[in-house]
Amino acid sequence: MPSITFLPGNHVCEVESGTALQSAAEQAGVNISFPCAGKGVCGKCIVKITSGSVAFEDNGKLPETLRRQGYVLTCRSKASDGNATVLLTSSLSEEKGQFTDALGCIGIEEELFPQQEDIKPLAAADRVTVAPPEQMDGLGDYDRFINAVSRDLLSKETDIPLNLLQKLPEELRLNDGELYVWHAKRLNTEYIVDISAAEPSGDYGLAIDIGTTTVVVLLADMASARAIDAVTLYNAQIDRGADVISRISYAKNPDRIREMRSLVLSTINRGISELTARNGNIPAHCIRNVSIAGNTTMTQLFMGIKPEYIRLDPYTPAVMGVPLYTAEALGLVINPCALIWFSPNVGSYVGGDITSGLLCTDFAVGTDEVCLFIDVGTNGEIVLGNNDFLMGCACSAGPAFEGGGIERGMRASEGAIERVEVDPVSGECSISVIGGGKPLGICGSGIISLLAQLFSADIIDRRGKLDRTGKFTSIKVSGKHARYYVTPAEGEDLGVYLTENDIDNFVRAKAAIFSACVTMLKSVSLDFSCITKFYIAGGFGKYIEIEKAQTLGLLPPLDKDRFYYIGNSSLAGAFMSLLSQKHRDKVEELANRITYVDLSVEPGYMDEYVAAMFLPHTDMSMFGKG
């Protein structure tokens, strides 16, 4: 059998001839990124064959110059009869991402956060006095504990986990039956989360945002109701799909569902470990409260639930309101008895990250003014309404805003071009690179910055086609294809460029977002002029330049003072829910009020989408032009 060696690391495996190189990598324990779930359309699983050969089925995504240098796509390659050595390119774990400040809540009004009188975590600590044992009273420690909880906490039913029952006799005798008891309401039962005879040395909680691209874990001091620290990590599932549809497609059997659950769980637990270590080695058992917000697919994959039915008619999620489960059951490395609260889902593609984010808007306090909330990412989720109505929908924007589906695109990490200044006369540009080093690709904010200026300078037309007159040296034309070079190609360095296909992918993404907004508004006989506040959420949303996004038709031509950046509202809402029963109730109330709109069956949506497939739009009057 042929032997495949993966470098660096010298991982070796023997496989049958014809085995997919992707499978060989998995067998060797090598992690390779497949953002398109192995469909061969993103080009991100590129590797170099340094010796031997593999059978490569070219699908046109790999430039011939790279083919000649020995590069192949892992997902399109198979082991041949002989041995081969495979050199891996950079991986996700090596990227240094540009993450928003997880502790900063830009644009979120202070009065929206829980006030002191609102503080009520899911698991709260109270003093309980347990009667001392008496000879021949017929009561065990458990009986006397249950009696005390019923009396002091007004509990009719009490559930104490086995590990706490095991420590109960010792704790009762350390301080003459005086106990601190952390308890939470679970259905109609008072569930015991922890017990301690000693005064608590620390009481902590976690707010977690499980995003498609990143996972953010925030550590909070429950005693003072303040955020202490936070860490942002790439969601390790990215290597198995850049968007939710790709991940649903990948998680098609029990082994892969377990793999996807393991990937996101390891990401979260790594974040917890980092936070506890750098904040005085906080003991894991002192973390007794957790609030999680994530979209519907991410929530199901975290729980190990098959996500396939989310994308199959009639598009039914496994769960809208997630029951309370213990940390031990879900695999979090904290107090095993801690109960985990999830922000509720509304539909297949409007999940807990959106309902959580609404806590950061006027929707949470009630308003007669019409507001629109949008979270821009691989999916575009939108909520429209006021006190009288709430509607929510989602559109598949694809990964273009995060560099996916773009030949030289990349996430917002070191080496990504994030800003561009184009000379309208020469067409040449100057760039700003994250980290200040050599440009390796271009991220979403860089694409918006570049395309808006190319369009304003008539270097691309309304269809996204590049100028072919030869006037601009940055444009290279080959037959029917044209590229705009942001940085030149030199030797083996291909440079950073945008193809017309890249531009088309971006236009499709912006058209999906804009047409979804228009469809929602028209369904209630409104237009953009009726919007008082336009909330932009999400990590990527923070980097959108309003004027340039309006130039391209991604955002409507409203006055800038109507737009509000609210950053990672999913995390901010999860933090509010961690602290306050009032805010947990509010999230559930908002979720119950939202009418979920399925755009795939909404009359007129496709017409709006086609109309938005121009820059800025087919109807130029919408943007104040003739």
Describe this structure in words.
This protein is an alpha/beta fold. It has five domains: 3-88, Ubiquitin-like (UB roll) (Roll), CATH 3.10.20.30; 124-196, Ubiquitin-like (UB roll), CATH 3.10.20; 204-352, Domain of unknown function (DUF4445) (Nucleotidyltransferase, domain 5); 363-398 and 506-619, Nucleotidyltransferase, domain 5; 400-500, no CATH class. Strand 11 and strand 12 form a beta hairpin. Helix 10 (444-456) crosses helix 12 (546-552), helix 11 crosses helix 15 (605-611) and helix 13 (569-579) crosses helix 14. The chain is globular, with a radius of gyration of 27 Å.
pLDDT below 50 for ≥5 consecutive residues: which ranges?
none
Mean pLDDT: 90
Q: Strand share of the residues?
A: 25-35%
Largest sheet: 6 strands, mixed
SSE-based structural type: alpha/beta
CATH topology assignment of the largest domain: Nucleotidyltransferase, domain 5
Distance linking N and C termini: 68 Å
Q: Helicity, in percent?
A: 25-40%
Number of helices: 15
Dominant shape: globular
Topology, element by element:
Blueprint: E1 3-7, E2 11-14, H1 21-27, E3 46-56, H2 64-68, E4 71-73, E5 77-88, E6 124-129, H3 141-152, E7 158-159, H4 162-174, E8 178-186, E9 189-196, E10 204-210, E11 214-221, E12 226-234, H5 244-250, H6 254-278, E13 287-294, H7 296-303, E14 325-326, H8 327-330, E15 339-342, H9 352-357, E16 371-376, E17 379-385, E18 390-396, E19 416-422, E20 429-433, E21 441-442, H10 444-456, E22 475-478, E23 481-487, E24 496-499, H11 500-523, E25 533-537, H12 546-552, E26 563-567, H13 569-579, H14 581-593, E27 595-596, H15 605-611
Parallel strand pairs: 1-5, 7-9, 10-13, 13-15, 16-25, 18-27, 19-21, 25-26
Antiparallel strand pairs: 1-2, 3-4, 3-5, 6-8, 8-9, 10-11, 11-12, 14-15, 16-17, 17-18, 19-20, 22-23, 23-24
Helix pairs in contact: 10-12, 11-15, 13-14
